[in-house]
Amino acid sequence: MGRGLFRFFINVLLFACFMAFGIAHDIRIGRIPVAPEWNPWTPLDLSLRETRIQNWKINRARNDPVQCRAALSQVAHASALPDYTPSEKCSIKGGVILAGLGAARLDPLKTRCALAMDLYLWEQNSVRPAAREILGADLRRIEHFGSYSCRKIAGSRRWSKHARAEAIDIAGFRLANGRHITLLRGWNGKSDERKFLRQIRDGACQHFGGVLSPDYNAAHADHFHFDFSRWGFCK
Ligand SMILES: [Zn+2]
Question: Distance, CA 134 to ligand 1 centroid (Å)?
Fold first, then answer.
């Protein structure tokens, strides 16, 4: 290897070390900040945009209730729920009591922290922007039919994802201008409500493994069902 090439590699190595150190200590280069969504050492901040590093942190928090609750409590009304295991098939582990996401309120809901985190990401990335863009108003309230329910899937012998609080049913929305949108009336209702509900259903498919809407079957005419399935089901 020639001397020039050797020095070039040493410089690249020093620069890489400098960048890594700078990112780790939130150092600015001149006036350019090292974006925190690219910083693997800072705690997860759910309000940041999604990058590879941010998605890696989200996935890590999904399996770690302590990290998940710490991140969620910064952006949502969420408090820790002690593990609840009434039977072999039914439990809420790594749970939270969720009463709000960003500026939107909801009736206090017991669910798994990882699901609440997905719900927050959906609310921020899909519901809130769609409400502004299509309906011209801010989202104030999310209405739901709950998450945990110790039961089997209706008409089946298989246990529901609700039995482990790995699913949630969303029924409607209230906006800052007083407008109330429900799945039951809106899915085939006014054109702007139809557009809004379909857009946020499609948005949910970016955050949840399983998404069922009124398009799926009559049992879902009045709610969206979101869950942790791995099959990437979206209808
Ligand atoms: Zn459901």
Answer: 26
Q: Residue 64: inside a domain, yes or no?
A: no
Pairing of strands 167-175, 224-227: antiparallel
Separation of CA 35 and ligand 1 centre (Å): 38
Please check whether residue 145 lies inside any domain of the structure.
yes
The parent domain of residue 129 ranges over: 76-234
Give the DSSP H/E element, type plus range, for residue 11.
helix 3-24
What is the 129 CA–ligand 1 centroid distance (Å)?
Answer: 24
201 located within any domain: yes
Domain of 129: which CATH number?
3.30.1380
How many A from CA of 17 to the centre of ligand 1? 49
Each residue's pLDDT expressed in tens, for the chain with a length of 235 residues: 577 787 878 777 766 755 665 555 555 555 666 788 888 889 999 999 989 999 999 999 999 999 999 999 999 999 999 999 999 999 999 999 999 999 899 999 999 999 999 999 999 999 999 999 999 999 999 999 999 999 999 889 999 999 999 999 999 999 999 999 999 999 999 999 999 999 999 999 999 999 999 999 999 999 999 998 877 889 9
In a domain, 221, yes or no: yes
Question: Following DSSP, what letter does each residue of 129-156 receive, concatenated?
Answer: HHIIIIISS-EEEEEEEES----BPTTS
Q: Please give the model's pTM, rounded to 2 decimal places.
A: 0.85
Number of domains in the chain: 1
Q: What is the phi/psi pair of residue 178, to 5°? A: 90, -10
